[in-house]
From TrEMBL:
<dbReference type="InterPro" id="IPR050678">
    <property type="entry name" value="DNA_Partitioning_ATPase"/>
</dbReference>
<feature type="domain" description="CobQ/CobB/MinD/ParA nucleotide binding">
    <location>
        <begin position="7"/>
        <end position="252"/>
    </location>
</feature>
<dbReference type="Pfam" id="PF01656">
    <property type="entry name" value="CbiA"/>
</dbReference>
<dbReference type="InterPro" id="IPR027417">
    <property type="entry name" value="P-loop_NTPase"/>
</dbReference>
<protein>
    <submittedName>
        <fullName>ATP/GTP-binding protein</fullName>
    </submittedName>
</protein>
<dbReference type="InterPro" id="IPR002586">
    <property type="entry name" value="CobQ/CobB/MinD/ParA_Nub-bd_dom"/>
</dbReference>
Amino acid sequence: MTGTVVTFYSYKGGVGRSSTLANVSMLLARWGHRVLAIDWDLEAPGLHHYFGPMLPSAPQGGVVDLAYDFLDGAERPRDRVVRLEFDGGTVALLAAGRHDAAYAGRVQAVDWEDLYQRGFAAFLERCRAAWTADYDFVLIDSRTGISDIGSICTAHLPDWLVVLFTANDQSVEGAVNIAKLADVARDRLPYDRPQHMVLPILSRLDSRVEYQRAEHWQARCAELAAPLFRNWLARGVPAELMLRHLTLPYVSYWSFGEQLAVLEETTPSADQLSFALETVAAVIAQQFDRTDLLADNRDAYVAAARTQERTYDLDILVSSPRSALKVTMELIDELRALDLNAVRSLSGDPDLLDQATEPARHLCLVVDGAVSRWQATEAERFLRTVEADGDRQLFCVLTSDTDRDGLPGFLRNLRHLELGAGTRPRQVAQQLHELITDAGRDRADSERKILVSAGSALRNVPKQAHHGRWALIDQTVREMSTAVDDDDLLLLKDLTTNLKLLNEVHSSNERSRAPEGLSRLIHVLLERIDREAAGWLTERWRDAGEVRNP
């Protein structure tokens, strides 16, 4: 599967573009993605400063050397990537270049217009193909304003744009206009590229002192940036609400130096910078999808991005008060005998609630008499992250001294397993084992991924293509529709791969817009697939309810 190129752009400087890219790259890497960060701001390079403590040595080359590689006749870019190791992952960095006395002269000597006339575009396509083959996300830090380099970063290379602006008209309008110009420029390229998806970021908004003015400008920025949401925001979600999720607060602490907030704020609260940065990274990781879930439950949305393809140290964490210690340890021993990795969580231990990641896939509460305050906190924290990850389950085991009518509402509706005179820990462990090892879960998860991938391919059908290419796309989309009718998801997966290839095919021939009938067919099919992908989660909860509620 090829990676995605994302350019971070700002019309004006001083909006935190480079720091946002650096932080997002760390989050994506921490969540298991292969990430390449590229510093294309050649006149004012600085991305490497944010990674300074992780740099094994100073970069010996970078983006500016691509031009000289091309002039020297190289077919592909030479490897000048530096790998940065940190606690939680690895980020690859392609710096602007070697920062020595000769750097400024090397940059100023490059005539980008002349390079394009010599065929540099084809060389950049080979660079792009190499990067997207090796990385899941290629994040490009573009220079500000309007320039030849800016056009490379906003029109030629990216699949998506992230545009940052502050709360003033010139900053917002400049970013919106660049997004429009980039789409116009892409239409002139000899490569089929779909219309940009653009993620608008309101940066450095200070709402702590001038609250009313901040509210005014929040609404104003949402109004100006509204066109950028049209081709990806879920129907019914207001642009102003989404922009609030995509607003980076001004925190004076981070205005000094080049620290990375996400490395220090591992469990951020809602008023911290890393909280908003996690939301931005999650939208990118989820490919702009399921924004209805983001609007309803930000924590679940971020958790879904964080837990994609992840593994857990434990199968199940068993939480109990001290009064139920003996029976809980017997239950854990029986679970381990069934090859489940289970440990006890001592309710009341605040360190558990401060952990940045979830240690176990499932949580089991052993309730003795009543749910303790700490158990309720554990369960609520777990449920905030479980909505979008249907493979995780919350179980409730009651001792004979527990009154189920006195349980909190969110636990009362679960099926309750019972420990008492008639039910021993071994029997409860066997019941938990059966619920946890349900063989159908892996299949259901795979089915949803196929639907999400098909939806993404349909959204990325190019705006313009050669007439013969439209015929192939039309045939493929019709076959995808038939596959959905027949519930043949394996065929849909193969056809999705074909459509993605058709979306990327390069052509220099005369192009036209999609036939009206095809556009309507794509719209109808996309709505069906989105409904089924969303219904997959509902079905999972309904199935779970049938198991839990006798």
